[in-house]
Amino acid sequence: MNNFFKIIAALFLGLVSTINLQAQVLDKSWSSITSMNNDAWYASAEAKTVAENVLLYQRNIGGWPKNIQIQKPLSDAQKKELQALKSSTEGCTTDNNATTQEMLFLSKIYKQQPDERYKNAFLMGLDYLLAAQYANGGWPQFYPLKKGYYTHITYNDDSMARILMVLKEIKDKTDFYSIKSSDEIVAKAKIAFDKGIDCIIKTQYKQNGVLTAWCAQHDETTLLPAKARAYELPSLSGKESAKIVLLLMSIENPSKEVITAVEAAVAWFEKVKITGLREDRVLKDGKITDKKMVADTAAPDLWARFMELDDNKPFFCDRDGVKKYSLSEIGDERRNGYSWYTNEPKEVLKAYDKWKKKLSTEIKSAPKTGMKAPKDEYNIIVAQDGSGDYGSIQEAIYNSPAFPYQRVTITVKNGIYHEKVRIPEWNTKISLIGESKEKTIITFDDYFGKINLGRNSTFLTPTVLVEGNDCKISNLTIQNTAGPVGQAVALSVEADRVVVSNCILLGNQDTLYVSGEGFKQYYKDCFIEGTVDFIFGSATAVFENCHIHAKSNAYLTAASTPESSKYGFVFMNCKLTAGEKATEVYLGRPWRINAKTVYLNCEMGKHIRKEGWDNWSKAEAEKASFYAEYNCSGPGFQPESRAAWSHQLTKTEAKEYTLDKILGGTNSKLNWYSNFK
């Protein structure tokens, strides 16, 4: 009997202990809860209840609002209100730890309670972080953008540093987060991380030509230090700069630019540290009622939150925005309600020596890869697993010889390469060869509205841009994944004598841009898909044995052929197909009135409109353009119903459409289109 009561007593004490533990957890702040490591609590029913709140607070766009104690119980009315706010994007932010801390919570509870909803919410949060990034690599305080200083690149309260640490864990495939991302998302995270670091390097402030540190926020266009609230003036930040440097120190095998940035910032921290000064606080009911700075030779080092850009002098402000140079000069509300001093740089100085030793070891043992020269500059291997000369395609191109005397072959191993690739004008004779067209994928997601640099933003969206003549591309998938959001180019070819063979080109509007007055290009055995005008441009281009797939009711082509060109777009032995949503598709329309497009021996699906061609509301194009067909087949070939101003070629006329006549000529290198490697 005594044993029975002992067992009951033990169970009772265990229950009381659990209740006390849970009560103690809920009494913590939301930030403290997300940062604690307590597997037992994350496995509890109470944690699951809190997780329901986390899911409710998340907006459909993937982000969360800030300054919410999410762990607090919700009434039925509050739950309904949050459900109604799901489609709203207002208030979504990364400020004050928002979004990144909710993602951390979801990772911890998913590890103990693997509910797919937690995983999906985490991945939505990750998508939100990726979508919010500016093209220059920075992040605003709110996304979608909120007017005012919120659009500035935000280092304030370590917002951008925390985002980049999330992306670093994802791209490095560590076990920090229990929720794993797809290879495509990992690749996106790597690109976003690299762009973010590049932004940090570019925004490091130069004082009289010497690199120093960073401001709490930088203008998203000029990258210069910028103002936020009235008392947060452009300045060098002793607080925010610390986390930035710790982030840079965490990078494995850092570039020389990163090393320079760290060295300069550490030197600046040493230069501006404040010695012999102590902050005294008067507390009442747990709240600060007064702060005073007191001389104390034994006080640990301090750094000012805000320092003048030209001479590092600490300053302070009330809400009137007037600089004062002593904390005692500002009113009680701002003096006591804001952090004007910090000791965070001490962590940087503490870690610096260890970082230097590690860096020295890495430099000595680093393999001959990265931005160093390949073993054979005319035969370069790109592989994401480290087995090649470079890990990215753009690195390989950067390190290819300019205007070479012989062809440079860049072989790309299977993988998803989430990067914008540019083959510049000076990198001629490049052969970009994938290991397999299905598994060697170059992908990016720029689009007109994202670029947002005026009416010509379309031409800045390509995933791959070719400007170097005599380029050959084969065995690759090139895609723009922006979706149906307007103009978004996958492949832009603005060069002469270019061959694209056995490739998959994926996109929506404006998938393939073939450009250049007098330029000639050859596309063979390719799959090309899109929606509106997805093959467009001014070059003379032959498409042979290609699969042209329409995804919506629109136009296959939009040629802008110069009047001086005899040929424009010529499709030979191609197959025209469509998705379920595409039932009324035109063969083409004139981007410019002298457009020329011809289909020979092509198989046309029933999605092709009987009139075939559209004049784009340009009556003059009916006389100036040349649209024709010859010997085509399939339900979409209805020559008797075609637009009256189009043509059906005779056998004699069709004989003018051969590769040699279209792509050859006295101004072209003989048979440049016959060798695909």
Automatic annotation (TrEMBL):
GO terms for biological process: cell wall modification; pectin catabolic process. It holds the Pfam family Pectinesterase. Pathway: Glycan metabolism; pectin degradation; 2-dehydro-3-deoxy-D-gluconate from pectin: step 1/5. Residues 379-665 form the Pectinesterase catalytic domain. The keyword Hydrolase applies. InterPro entries: Pectate_lyase, Pectin_lyas_fold, Pectin_lyase_fold/virulence, Pectinesterase_Asp_AS, Pectinesterase_cat. It catalyses: [(1->4)-alpha-D-galacturonosyl methyl ester](n) + n H2O = [(1->4)-alpha-D-galacturonosyl](n) + n methanol + n H(+). The active site is at residue 533. NCBIfam families: pec_lyase. This is Pectinesterase. It comes from Flavobacterium glycines.
